[in-house]
């Protein structure tokens, strides 16, 4: 065992100073410019290299589901995505070939109109248009186009009957200028569309994002692609062949389409999604990973220091201005830092879950329409949580009305208060809830029975933690033989699945109480994992667990002497509500961080696990009881007979 002789006096209560924040606030005013390069520097550098690279390529960008990937992409990609207009004309010299001309935006719309007029006016007006083209600097780079139209003019002058044929053969791609991010991937958005006018018998092609003949970048949501799997397969074919076929635009269209040549694919593509969707892509198409030239991941949080805090607040200011909300003042900056560390579940990190933060600031403007106040922002946060807090309300009500039994005062044998986190899908609600854990011991073969597992309510990790408890007991008692007792552990009034190892410390403590018959404090609740050497290990959801127990104690009218025992390694993750921090400062609520089982035993049992003289210890009480069980079995060849006598004696008394 590790440090098994440590006593109660060595377990130090967490002090208020350990919960207070160093906000690391920069000088005000704070800029309101996007700071993704500082917030996510690795991903930002990778994106910069990708955009600057030569030739067509495709990147897979993985991001947490809550992260505003769109904001990152808007900051990293070129401001406008421009598809150049293209004109397809039949060659005057051959009916089997076509001439293709790319026209640069933004002047191509004017040229398209000129071309339409070219075919709608008399042939005698062609020379006027050509004269304009020759003298206009806008079109000076289109020398090949001008030469072609001069030849076409001569041809039409000599063969006026071909004029109508040229009109029917004209297909133009409209120029567009828009965001590089395609929110909804559709056939039209990617591959364009084909329209056929039966009256004029004119075929018109509209460009898709893949038709761009410049090295530009587009971003696609994988979720949108997976909703139409055929689009993914066609996009994959384009990436692999580096060719865009015009037939794709009319695949499900009955419009006639001329035999146009394929275009080289020059576009760069960023496909972004969370890990779950990317896993779904590989499930659907196991070879999908081979087409990505680059893979990058956006982090969900950033280390907290002076420079990163400045960058974080600058980014938040930028997002506030995009939603017409006031920029941060000192009060709002303090709230933002505190809330961000809470979302990151670590005092030394800042969460990039900006959308959650913005909801609070929007509500503040609706409710108060005044300068930001730290207290008012917390009120808004509480109001938003109350809007989705029905399950939390009913949970507390169950304890108040005694539907769920919980002792938060006095002492009791073989009963302890554990801490859990309940997660509800949908709106993403999670909150802490205490749970009563009990144990019983009887003559047997040394087995620790996990009732949750027997009832098929316990998961694999939970089952593993119960095995660790059993192995620890065997090691503690240093027994080379089968122990003369069996025991059971149960999570009382639990009606849903349980998993995880965060209750293993509580399970071991309550089992030691049942074995030793020593009462343990009910005013304390405990969370923590345990290993076979007795070290207490960190757990998740520590803030929710502490707040859940505090709220229940307060609802029961008992919150002045209660407290929680937590792993010492979780202290750096504490970002508690202001009311709980105040209660700790007033000595009305207590937090005890522990590193070893022996420290937790000293708190709950008021005596050590063991001592050099082996007197008044938990281990001594357990050994004494085992000896009693062994003696009972020796005196009675039928051990069950002595147990019946004991039971009868208890009932008679």
From TrEMBL:
It comes from the Bacteria. Gene3D superfamilies: 3.30.230.10, P-loop containing nucleotide triphosphate hydrolases. It catalyses: Hydrolysis of proteins in presence of ATP. It is an enzyme of class 3 (hydrolase). Keywords: Hydrolase, Protease, Serine protease. The active site is at residues 502, 545. Residues 410-607 form the Lon proteolytic domain. Its EC number is 3.4.21.53. InterPro entries: AAA_32, Lon_proteolytic, Lon_Prtase, P-loop_NTPase, Ribosomal_Su5_D2-typ_SF, Ribsml_uS5_D2-typ_fold_subgr. One of its GO terms (molecular function) is serine-type endopeptidase activity. GO terms for biological process: protein catabolic process; proteolysis. PANTHER family: ATP DEPENDENT LON PROTEASE FAMILY MEMBER. Belongs to the peptidase S16 family. This is endopeptidase La.
């Amino acid at each position: 065992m590790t440090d098994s002789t440590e006593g109660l006096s060595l377990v130090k209560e967490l002090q208020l100073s350990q919960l207070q924040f160093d906000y690391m606030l920069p000088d005000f005013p704070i800029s309101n410019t996007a700071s993704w390069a500082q917030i996510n520097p690795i991903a930002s550098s990778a994106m910069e290299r990708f955009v600057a690279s030569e030739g067509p390529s495709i990147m897979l960008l993985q991001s947490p589901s809550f992260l505003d990937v769109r904001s990152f992409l808007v900051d990293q990609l070129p401001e406008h995505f421009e598809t150049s207009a293209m004109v397809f004309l039949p060659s005057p010299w051959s009916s089997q070939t076509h001439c293709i001309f790319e026209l640069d935006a933004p002047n191509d719309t004017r040229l398209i109109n000129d071309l339409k007029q070219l075919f709608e006016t008399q042939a005698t007006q062609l020379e006027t248009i050509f004269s304009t083209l020759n003298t206009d600097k806008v079109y000076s780079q289109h020398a090949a186009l001008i030469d072609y139209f001069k030849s076409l003019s001569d041809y039409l002058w000599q063969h006026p009957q071909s004029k109508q044929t040229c009109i029917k053969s004209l297909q133009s791609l409209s120029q567009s200028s828009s965001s590089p991010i395609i929110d909804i991937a559709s056939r039209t958005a990617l591959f364009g569309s084909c329209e056929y006018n039966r009256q004029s018998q004119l075929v018109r092609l509209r460009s898709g994002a893949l038709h761009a003949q410049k090295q530009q970048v587009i971003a696609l949501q994988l979720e949108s692609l997976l909703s139409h799997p055929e689009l993914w397969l066609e996009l994959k074919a384009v990436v692999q062949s580096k060719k865009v076929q015009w037939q794709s635009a009319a695949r499900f269209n009955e419009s006639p389409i001329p035999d146009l040549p394929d275009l080289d694919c020059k576009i760069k593509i960023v496909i972004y999604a969370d890990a779950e969707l990317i896993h779904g892509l590989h499930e659907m198409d196991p070879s999908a990973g081979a087409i990505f030239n680059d893979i990058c991941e956006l982090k969900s949080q950033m280390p907290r220091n002076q420079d990163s805090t400045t960058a974080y607040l600058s980014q938040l200011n930028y997002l506030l201005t995009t939603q017409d909300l006031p920029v941060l003042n000192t009060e709002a900056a303090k709230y933002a830092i505190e809330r961000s560390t809470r979302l990151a579940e670590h005092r030394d990190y800042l969460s990039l879950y900006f959308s959650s933060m913005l909801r609070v600031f929007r509500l503040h403007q609706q409710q108060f329409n005044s300068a930001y106040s730290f207290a008012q922002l917390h009120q808004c946060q509480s109001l938003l949580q109350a809007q989705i807090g029905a399950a939390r309300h009913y949970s507390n009500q169950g304890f108040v009305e005694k539907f769920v039994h919980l002792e938060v005062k006095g002492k009791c044998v073989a009963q302890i208060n554990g801490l859990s986190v309940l997660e509800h899908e949908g709106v993403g609600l999670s909150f802490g809830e205490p749970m009563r854990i009990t144990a019983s011991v009887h003559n047997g073969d040394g087995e620790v029975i996990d009732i949750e597992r027997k009832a098929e309510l316990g998961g694999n990790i939970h089952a593993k933690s119960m095995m660790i408890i059993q192995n620890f007991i065997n090691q503690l008692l240093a027994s080379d033989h089968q122990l003369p007792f069996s025991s059971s552990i149960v999570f009382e009034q639990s009606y849903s699945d349980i998993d995880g190892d965060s209750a293993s410390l509580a399970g071991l403590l309550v089992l030691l109480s049942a074995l030793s018959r020593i009462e343990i404090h009910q005013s304390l609740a405990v969370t923590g994992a345990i290993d076979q050497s007795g070290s207490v290990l960190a757990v998740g959801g520590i803030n929710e667990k502490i707040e859940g127990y505090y709220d229940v104690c307060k609802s029961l009218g008992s919150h002045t002497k209660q407290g929680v025992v937590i792993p010492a390694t979780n202290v750096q993750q504490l970002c508690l509500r202001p009311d709980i921090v105040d209660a700790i400062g007033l000595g009305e609520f207590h937090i005890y961080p522990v590193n070893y089982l022996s420290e937790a035993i000293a708190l709950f049992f008021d005596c050590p696990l063991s001592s050099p003289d082996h007197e008044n210890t938990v281990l001594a009480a357990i050994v004494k009881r085992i000896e009693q069980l062994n003696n009972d079995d020796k005196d009675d060849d039928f051990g069950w007979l002595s147990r019946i006598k004991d039971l009868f004696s208890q009932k008679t008394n």
